[in-house]
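Let us practice reading a record.
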Amino acid sequence: MNEHGARLSQQRLSRRRFSALLGGGALAASLLPGRRFAPPAAAQEIAIVDPETSARVASIGESSRIVYVEETGHTMSGVLLDYWRATGRAALFGNPISEPFETADGVYGQAMEYGVIQFLPELLWTLEPFVRFMPAGRTLLGGMNGGFRNDGRRMGGGGNPRARDWALPAGELLSGAVGYGEPAGVEIDTRFSEWYATHEGRFYLGLPLTPLLTERGQPAQWFEGGLLLDDSDGPRLAPLGKELAARLGVSVAPVSQGDLPTDNEDSFLVVPNPLPTGADPAGSGRKRIDVDISEQTVRAYAGDKLVLETFCSTGLWPNKTETGEFRIRYKTRLEDMRGATDPNGKVVWVAGDHGGPPAGSIPYGVPDVPNVMYVNLEAEALHGAYWHNNFGAVMSHGCINLPLEVAAFLYEWAPLGTPVRSFLHEGMVYPGSEGHDPSEGVDYPVGTDTGAVG
Protein backbone atom coordinates (compact mmCIF):
# COMPACT_ATOMS: atom_id res chain seq x y z
CA MET A 1 0.00 0.00 0.00
CA ASN A 2 1.44 3.39 -0.72
CA GLU A 3 4.20 4.91 -2.83
CA HIS A 4 7.63 3.48 -2.80
CA GLY A 5 10.12 3.56 -5.67
CA ALA A 6 13.23 1.55 -6.32
CA ARG A 7 15.55 4.44 -5.55
CA LEU A 8 13.92 5.21 -2.20
CA SER A 9 13.72 1.55 -1.27
CA GLN A 10 17.43 1.04 -1.86
CA GLN A 11 18.25 4.16 0.08
CA ARG A 12 15.98 3.26 2.99
CA LEU A 13 17.30 -0.29 3.26
CA SER A 14 20.88 0.92 3.39
CA ARG A 15 20.16 3.80 5.75
CA ARG A 16 18.45 1.51 8.25
CA ARG A 17 21.90 0.14 9.08
CA PHE A 18 23.21 3.54 10.13
CA SER A 19 22.92 3.79 13.89
CA ALA A 20 25.66 6.22 14.86
CA LEU A 21 26.58 9.81 14.19
CA LEU A 22 30.33 10.10 13.85
CA GLY A 23 30.71 6.84 15.74
CA GLY A 24 28.91 7.80 18.95
CA GLY A 25 25.48 7.65 20.57
CA ALA A 26 23.56 10.86 21.08
CA LEU A 27 21.25 10.17 23.99
CA ALA A 28 23.25 12.29 26.43
CA ALA A 29 26.53 14.17 26.51
CA SER A 30 28.66 14.46 29.60
CA LEU A 31 27.84 17.64 31.49
CA LEU A 32 31.40 18.12 32.68
CA PRO A 33 33.09 21.36 31.59
CA GLY A 34 36.13 21.32 29.39
CA ARG A 35 34.79 18.90 26.79
CA ARG A 36 36.56 18.84 23.42
CA PHE A 37 34.51 20.08 20.48
CA ALA A 38 34.98 20.19 16.76
CA PRO A 39 34.70 23.64 15.15
CA PRO A 40 31.13 24.91 14.73
CA ALA A 41 29.56 23.12 11.77
CA ALA A 42 26.43 23.31 9.69
CA ALA A 43 24.22 20.23 9.87
CA GLN A 44 24.78 19.40 6.23
CA GLU A 45 28.49 18.98 7.03
CA ILE A 46 27.71 16.22 9.55
CA ALA A 47 27.29 12.74 8.11
CA ILE A 48 25.81 9.49 9.27
CA VAL A 49 28.43 6.75 9.52
CA ASP A 50 27.94 3.24 8.22
CA PRO A 51 29.08 1.09 11.21
CA GLU A 52 30.24 -1.67 8.87
CA THR A 53 32.67 0.50 6.91
CA SER A 54 33.15 3.53 9.20
CA ALA A 55 32.57 5.64 6.12
CA ARG A 56 30.54 8.83 6.07
CA VAL A 57 27.79 8.06 3.62
CA ALA A 58 24.94 10.56 3.88
CA SER A 59 24.49 14.06 5.17
CA ILE A 60 21.57 14.84 7.44
CA GLY A 61 18.97 17.56 7.34
CA GLU A 62 16.80 18.76 4.53
CA SER A 63 17.80 22.38 4.23
CA SER A 64 21.10 23.41 2.68
CA ARG A 65 20.46 26.90 4.00
CA ILE A 66 22.27 28.57 6.88
CA VAL A 67 20.36 31.47 8.44
CA TYR A 68 21.32 34.11 10.98
CA VAL A 69 19.02 34.67 13.97
CA GLU A 70 19.35 38.36 14.81
CA GLU A 71 17.64 38.08 18.22
CA THR A 72 20.56 36.16 19.70
CA GLY A 73 23.34 36.55 17.12
CA HIS A 74 23.74 32.90 16.11
CA THR A 75 23.16 30.70 13.07
CA MET A 76 20.94 27.69 12.45
CA SER A 77 21.05 25.13 9.67
CA GLY A 78 20.20 21.62 8.52
CA VAL A 79 18.17 19.23 10.64
CA LEU A 80 18.23 21.49 13.71
CA LEU A 81 16.81 24.32 11.62
CA ASP A 82 14.14 21.96 10.27
CA TYR A 83 12.89 21.02 13.74
CA TRP A 84 13.18 24.59 15.02
CA ARG A 85 10.83 25.70 12.24
CA ALA A 86 8.47 22.75 12.74
CA THR A 87 8.06 23.38 16.47
CA GLY A 88 7.37 27.10 16.14
CA ARG A 89 10.89 28.46 16.41
CA ALA A 90 11.26 30.18 19.81
CA ALA A 91 7.91 28.75 20.97
CA LEU A 92 9.50 25.46 22.13
CA PHE A 93 13.29 25.54 21.91
CA GLY A 94 13.81 29.27 22.22
CA ASN A 95 16.34 30.98 19.97
CA PRO A 96 19.91 29.66 19.47
CA ILE A 97 22.50 30.90 21.99
CA SER A 98 25.47 29.00 20.56
CA GLU A 99 26.70 27.76 17.22
CA PRO A 100 26.07 24.10 16.28
CA PHE A 101 28.70 21.88 17.90
CA GLU A 102 29.90 18.30 17.80
CA THR A 103 31.28 16.58 20.87
CA ALA A 104 34.18 14.17 20.89
CA ASP A 105 31.58 11.47 21.49
CA GLY A 106 29.87 12.33 18.22
CA VAL A 107 26.89 14.24 19.61
CA TYR A 108 25.68 16.95 17.25
CA GLY A 109 23.71 19.67 18.97
CA GLN A 110 23.15 23.34 19.72
CA ALA A 111 22.47 25.36 22.86
CA MET A 112 19.11 27.11 22.78
CA GLU A 113 17.49 29.47 25.27
CA TYR A 114 15.52 26.68 26.97
CA GLY A 115 18.03 23.85 26.78
CA VAL A 116 20.42 21.99 24.50
CA ILE A 117 18.89 20.29 21.48
CA GLN A 118 20.59 17.33 19.83
CA PHE A 119 20.26 15.12 16.78
CA LEU A 120 19.44 11.47 17.61
CA PRO A 121 20.36 9.28 14.63
CA GLU A 122 19.03 6.14 16.29
CA LEU A 123 15.53 7.58 15.84
CA LEU A 124 15.84 8.27 12.11
CA TRP A 125 13.66 5.31 11.14
CA THR A 126 11.06 5.67 13.85
CA LEU A 127 7.95 7.84 14.15
CA GLU A 128 9.52 9.87 16.93
CA PRO A 129 11.22 13.25 16.42
CA PHE A 130 14.95 12.79 15.98
CA VAL A 131 15.79 16.25 17.29
CA ARG A 132 14.87 16.99 20.92
CA PHE A 133 16.16 18.40 24.19
CA MET A 134 19.16 16.76 25.82
CA PRO A 135 17.82 14.83 28.88
CA ALA A 136 19.62 17.05 31.38
CA GLY A 137 16.80 17.53 33.89
CA ARG A 138 17.99 14.85 36.31
CA THR A 139 21.52 16.27 36.36
CA LEU A 140 20.33 19.82 36.99
CA LEU A 141 17.83 18.68 39.59
CA GLY A 142 20.54 16.76 41.40
CA GLY A 143 22.60 19.94 41.65
CA MET A 144 19.64 22.01 42.81
CA ASN A 145 20.73 25.24 44.44
CA GLY A 146 17.65 27.38 44.29
CA GLY A 147 15.98 29.43 41.59
CA PHE A 148 17.00 31.46 38.56
CA ARG A 149 18.04 35.04 38.08
CA ASN A 150 16.61 37.14 35.26
CA ASP A 151 19.59 36.22 33.07
CA GLY A 152 18.77 32.52 33.43
CA ARG A 153 21.62 31.66 35.81
CA ARG A 154 20.92 29.89 39.07
CA MET A 155 20.77 31.75 42.36
CA GLY A 156 22.27 30.43 45.59
CA GLY A 157 25.01 27.84 45.39
CA GLY A 158 26.18 24.53 46.74
CA GLY A 159 22.71 23.50 47.80
CA ASN A 160 22.50 26.44 50.20
CA PRO A 161 19.63 25.58 52.59
CA ARG A 162 18.88 29.28 52.93
CA ALA A 163 18.10 29.56 49.19
CA ARG A 164 14.33 29.21 49.59
CA ASP A 165 13.39 29.95 45.98
CA TRP A 166 13.06 26.21 45.49
CA ALA A 167 10.82 24.06 47.67
CA LEU A 168 8.39 21.17 47.53
CA PRO A 169 4.86 21.78 48.79
CA ALA A 170 4.40 21.36 52.52
CA GLY A 171 4.51 17.74 53.61
CA GLU A 172 6.26 16.51 50.42
CA LEU A 173 9.71 14.98 50.31
CA LEU A 174 12.04 14.98 47.30
CA SER A 175 13.68 11.72 48.32
CA GLY A 176 12.19 8.91 46.26
CA ALA A 177 10.17 11.27 44.07
CA VAL A 178 12.75 11.74 41.32
CA GLY A 179 11.79 9.37 38.54
CA TYR A 180 8.55 8.33 36.96
CA GLY A 181 6.03 6.26 38.86
CA GLU A 182 8.28 5.00 41.67
CA PRO A 183 7.41 5.21 44.41
CA ALA A 184 5.47 8.46 44.41
CA GLY A 185 3.67 7.93 41.08
CA VAL A 186 4.89 11.21 39.57
CA GLU A 187 2.40 12.56 37.07
CA ILE A 188 2.16 15.68 34.96
CA ASP A 189 0.48 18.39 36.98
CA THR A 190 -2.86 19.50 35.58
CA ARG A 191 -1.67 23.06 35.06
CA PHE A 192 0.95 21.78 32.61
CA SER A 193 -0.96 18.94 30.94
CA GLU A 194 -2.46 20.95 28.07
CA TRP A 195 0.87 22.62 27.24
CA TYR A 196 2.61 19.24 27.43
CA ALA A 197 0.14 17.64 25.01
CA THR A 198 0.11 20.56 22.56
CA HIS A 199 3.90 20.69 22.36
CA GLU A 200 4.41 16.90 22.13
CA GLY A 201 6.06 16.98 25.53
CA ARG A 202 6.29 13.19 25.71
CA PHE A 203 8.99 13.45 23.02
CA TYR A 204 10.59 16.83 23.55
CA LEU A 205 10.58 17.00 27.37
CA GLY A 206 10.24 13.35 28.33
CA LEU A 207 8.79 12.07 31.60
CA PRO A 208 8.18 14.15 34.72
CA LEU A 209 10.85 13.82 37.41
CA THR A 210 9.15 15.59 40.32
CA PRO A 211 5.69 16.40 41.54
CA LEU A 212 4.62 20.04 41.55
CA LEU A 213 7.12 22.22 43.38
CA THR A 214 8.10 25.88 43.63
CA GLU A 215 10.87 27.48 41.57
CA ARG A 216 11.58 31.21 41.88
CA GLY A 217 8.29 31.67 43.64
CA GLN A 218 6.33 29.98 40.84
CA PRO A 219 4.62 26.59 40.55
CA ALA A 220 6.96 24.36 38.56
CA GLN A 221 7.67 20.78 37.53
CA TRP A 222 10.91 19.15 36.41
CA PHE A 223 11.03 16.86 33.37
CA GLU A 224 13.82 14.82 31.83
CA GLY A 225 14.49 17.53 29.28
CA GLY A 226 13.70 20.72 31.15
CA LEU A 227 11.71 22.68 33.69
CA LEU A 228 8.18 24.03 33.20
CA LEU A 229 7.14 27.13 35.12
CA ASP A 230 3.61 28.43 35.53
CA ASP A 231 3.53 32.24 35.57
CA SER A 232 0.84 34.84 34.93
CA ASP A 233 0.96 34.17 31.17
CA GLY A 234 0.65 30.42 31.57
CA PRO A 235 3.21 27.60 31.29
CA ARG A 236 6.67 28.40 29.95
CA LEU A 237 10.03 26.67 29.89
CA ALA A 238 12.74 27.90 32.22
CA PRO A 239 15.84 29.33 30.50
CA LEU A 240 18.26 26.47 31.16
CA GLY A 241 20.33 26.90 28.00
CA LYS A 242 23.06 29.15 29.40
CA GLU A 243 23.63 26.91 32.39
CA LEU A 244 23.90 23.81 30.22
CA ALA A 245 26.20 25.58 27.74
CA ALA A 246 28.49 26.57 30.62
CA ARG A 247 28.60 22.99 31.91
CA LEU A 248 29.43 21.74 28.43
CA GLY A 249 32.03 24.44 27.86
CA VAL A 250 30.18 25.75 24.79
CA SER A 251 30.63 29.41 23.90
CA VAL A 252 27.50 31.58 23.84
CA ALA A 253 29.31 34.60 22.39
CA PRO A 254 27.41 36.04 19.39
CA VAL A 255 29.00 35.59 15.97
CA SER A 256 29.21 37.92 12.99
CA GLN A 257 26.43 37.66 10.42
CA GLY A 258 28.73 38.21 7.49
CA ASP A 259 26.85 37.59 4.26
CA LEU A 260 24.41 35.06 5.77
CA PRO A 261 20.70 35.80 5.24
CA THR A 262 18.64 36.92 8.22
CA ASP A 263 16.21 34.24 9.33
CA ASN A 264 12.66 34.88 8.17
CA GLU A 265 9.98 32.26 7.56
CA ASP A 266 8.83 34.14 4.45
CA SER A 267 12.19 33.43 2.83
CA PHE A 268 11.48 29.66 2.95
CA LEU A 269 8.14 30.04 1.16
CA VAL A 270 9.37 30.37 -2.40
CA VAL A 271 6.09 28.91 -3.70
CA PRO A 272 2.97 31.01 -3.00
CA ASN A 273 0.08 29.54 -1.04
CA PRO A 274 -2.34 28.42 -3.78
CA LEU A 275 -5.35 28.40 -1.43
CA PRO A 276 -4.93 31.34 0.97
CA THR A 277 -7.23 31.44 3.99
CA GLY A 278 -6.33 34.92 5.19
CA ALA A 279 -3.93 33.54 7.80
CA ASP A 280 -0.24 34.26 7.34
CA PRO A 281 1.51 31.03 6.25
CA ALA A 282 4.69 32.42 7.79
CA GLY A 283 2.88 33.04 11.09
CA SER A 284 4.25 31.94 14.42
CA GLY A 285 3.37 28.71 16.16
CA ARG A 286 3.91 24.99 15.78
CA LYS A 287 3.23 23.64 12.31
CA ARG A 288 0.94 20.65 11.80
CA ILE A 289 -1.01 18.93 9.04
CA ASP A 290 -4.35 17.13 9.41
CA VAL A 291 -5.44 14.49 6.88
CA ASP A 292 -9.20 14.07 7.23
CA ILE A 293 -9.89 10.76 5.49
CA SER A 294 -13.65 10.97 6.03
CA GLU A 295 -13.82 14.30 4.19
CA GLN A 296 -10.83 13.63 1.88
CA THR A 297 -9.36 16.93 3.01
CA VAL A 298 -5.92 18.15 4.09
CA ARG A 299 -5.58 21.15 6.41
CA ALA A 300 -2.33 22.87 7.37
CA TYR A 301 -1.99 24.96 10.54
CA ALA A 302 0.54 27.40 11.97
CA GLY A 303 -0.29 27.46 15.66
CA ASP A 304 -4.09 27.60 15.79
CA LYS A 305 -4.36 29.39 12.43
CA LEU A 306 -5.56 27.49 9.35
CA VAL A 307 -3.21 28.47 6.51
CA LEU A 308 -4.37 26.03 3.79
CA GLU A 309 -7.31 23.68 3.14
CA THR A 310 -7.56 21.42 0.11
CA PHE A 311 -9.24 18.28 -1.15
CA CYS A 312 -6.97 15.25 -1.37
CA SER A 313 -7.16 11.60 -2.41
CA THR A 314 -6.21 8.88 0.06
CA GLY A 315 -5.98 5.12 -0.47
CA LEU A 316 -8.65 3.32 -2.49
CA TRP A 317 -9.92 0.27 -0.58
CA PRO A 318 -8.43 -2.21 0.21
CA ASN A 319 -5.18 -0.17 0.14
CA LYS A 320 -6.34 2.14 2.89
CA THR A 321 -4.24 5.00 4.22
CA GLU A 322 -3.02 4.34 7.73
CA THR A 323 -4.59 6.39 10.52
CA GLY A 324 -2.56 7.74 13.42
CA GLU A 325 -0.12 10.43 14.48
CA PHE A 326 2.97 10.70 12.31
CA ARG A 327 5.37 13.40 11.12
CA ILE A 328 7.22 14.40 8.00
CA ARG A 329 10.32 12.25 8.33
CA TYR A 330 11.87 12.14 4.85
CA LYS A 331 11.45 14.34 1.77
CA THR A 332 12.48 14.10 -1.86
CA ARG A 333 11.71 16.35 -4.81
CA LEU A 334 11.05 13.53 -7.30
CA GLU A 335 10.40 9.82 -6.90
CA ASP A 336 9.80 7.06 -9.46
CA MET A 337 7.06 4.79 -8.10
CA ARG A 338 6.08 1.37 -9.37
CA GLY A 339 4.60 -1.87 -8.13
CA ALA A 340 1.92 -4.46 -8.93
CA THR A 341 -1.61 -5.29 -7.82
CA ASP A 342 -3.75 -8.40 -7.91
CA PRO A 343 -6.87 -8.42 -10.16
CA ASN A 344 -8.88 -6.92 -7.27
CA GLY A 345 -6.59 -3.90 -7.03
CA LYS A 346 -4.74 -4.91 -3.89
CA VAL A 347 -1.02 -4.11 -3.90
CA VAL A 348 0.95 -7.38 -3.84
CA TRP A 349 4.44 -6.15 -4.76
CA VAL A 350 6.41 -2.91 -4.86
CA ALA A 351 9.77 -1.98 -6.32
CA GLY A 352 12.40 -2.79 -3.74
CA ASP A 353 10.72 -5.94 -2.44
CA HIS A 354 12.63 -9.18 -2.84
CA GLY A 355 11.93 -10.95 -6.11
CA GLY A 356 9.62 -9.52 -8.71
CA PRO A 357 5.91 -9.08 -9.34
CA PRO A 358 3.93 -12.29 -8.68
CA ALA A 359 2.66 -14.20 -11.68
CA GLY A 360 -0.66 -12.82 -12.88
CA SER A 361 -0.25 -9.48 -11.09
CA ILE A 362 -0.84 -6.17 -12.87
CA PRO A 363 2.16 -3.81 -12.94
CA TYR A 364 1.90 -0.06 -12.57
CA GLY A 365 4.38 2.78 -12.47
CA VAL A 366 4.65 6.55 -12.63
CA PRO A 367 7.92 8.45 -13.07
CA ASP A 368 8.92 11.66 -11.34
CA VAL A 369 6.23 11.91 -8.67
CA PRO A 370 6.81 15.45 -7.33
CA ASN A 371 7.30 16.89 -3.84
CA VAL A 372 7.18 13.65 -1.85
CA MET A 373 6.92 13.95 1.95
CA TYR A 374 7.01 10.56 3.69
CA VAL A 375 5.16 10.46 7.00
CA ASN A 376 5.06 6.93 8.45
CA LEU A 377 6.78 3.57 8.50
CA GLU A 378 4.51 2.22 5.76
CA ALA A 379 6.18 4.59 3.25
CA GLU A 380 2.97 6.59 2.87
CA ALA A 381 3.52 10.16 1.76
CA LEU A 382 1.91 13.44 0.94
CA HIS A 383 2.81 14.26 -2.67
CA GLY A 384 1.67 15.88 -5.86
CA ALA A 385 -0.38 13.86 -8.36
CA TYR A 386 -0.36 14.83 -12.04
CA TRP A 387 -2.16 11.71 -13.31
CA HIS A 388 -5.64 12.58 -12.03
CA ASN A 389 -7.74 15.55 -10.96
CA ASN A 390 -10.30 13.71 -8.87
CA PHE A 391 -9.31 15.17 -5.51
CA GLY A 392 -11.98 14.69 -2.88
CA ALA A 393 -12.36 10.99 -3.72
CA VAL A 394 -10.21 8.01 -2.71
CA MET A 395 -7.81 7.25 -5.58
CA SER A 396 -4.39 6.11 -4.37
CA HIS A 397 -2.65 2.94 -3.22
CA GLY A 398 -2.20 4.41 0.27
CA CYS A 399 -0.54 7.80 -0.08
CA ILE A 400 -2.18 11.22 0.21
CA ASN A 401 -2.46 12.66 -3.30
CA LEU A 402 -2.44 16.46 -3.53
CA PRO A 403 -2.97 19.00 -6.32
CA LEU A 404 0.43 19.86 -7.78
CA GLU A 405 0.49 23.47 -6.60
CA VAL A 406 -0.54 22.42 -3.07
CA ALA A 407 2.21 19.80 -2.83
CA ALA A 408 4.77 22.32 -4.07
CA PHE A 409 3.75 24.81 -1.37
CA LEU A 410 3.63 22.27 1.47
CA TYR A 411 7.05 20.90 0.52
CA GLU A 412 8.60 24.28 1.34
CA TRP A 413 6.25 25.17 4.21
CA ALA A 414 6.50 21.91 6.21
CA PRO A 415 10.04 20.99 7.30
CA LEU A 416 11.19 17.68 8.71
CA GLY A 417 9.49 17.00 12.03
CA THR A 418 6.14 18.58 11.13
CA PRO A 419 3.37 16.52 12.82
CA VAL A 420 0.86 14.83 10.50
CA ARG A 421 -2.39 13.40 11.87
CA SER A 422 -4.46 11.04 9.70
CA PHE A 423 -7.94 10.21 10.99
CA LEU A 424 -11.51 9.12 10.38
CA HIS A 425 -14.47 10.84 12.00
CA GLU A 426 -15.86 9.05 15.03
CA GLY A 427 -18.31 6.32 14.07
CA MET A 428 -17.29 6.31 10.39
CA VAL A 429 -15.54 3.52 8.51
CA TYR A 430 -12.91 3.79 5.84
CA PRO A 431 -14.41 4.92 2.48
CA GLY A 432 -15.22 1.87 0.35
CA SER A 433 -14.94 -0.60 3.23
CA GLU A 434 -18.66 -0.73 3.95
CA GLY A 435 -19.83 -4.33 4.12
CA HIS A 436 -16.28 -5.69 4.19
CA ASP A 437 -14.55 -7.56 6.96
CA PRO A 438 -12.06 -5.09 8.57
CA SER A 439 -9.36 -7.73 8.19
CA GLU A 440 -9.69 -7.37 4.43
CA GLY A 441 -7.64 -4.20 4.60
CA VAL A 442 -3.93 -4.19 4.02
CA ASP A 443 -2.25 -7.25 5.52
CA TYR A 444 1.47 -7.02 4.76
CA PRO A 445 3.92 -8.76 7.08
CA VAL A 446 5.26 -6.59 9.89
CA GLY A 447 8.34 -4.67 8.77
CA THR A 448 7.60 -4.89 5.05
CA ASP A 449 8.38 -1.70 3.11
CA THR A 450 5.26 -1.37 1.00
CA GLY A 451 4.17 1.21 -1.49
CA ALA A 452 2.39 1.95 -4.70
CA VAL A 453 1.74 4.75 -7.10
CA GLY A 454 -0.79 7.15 -5.68
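A brief commentary: Residues 137-144+153-159+177-237 form one domain.
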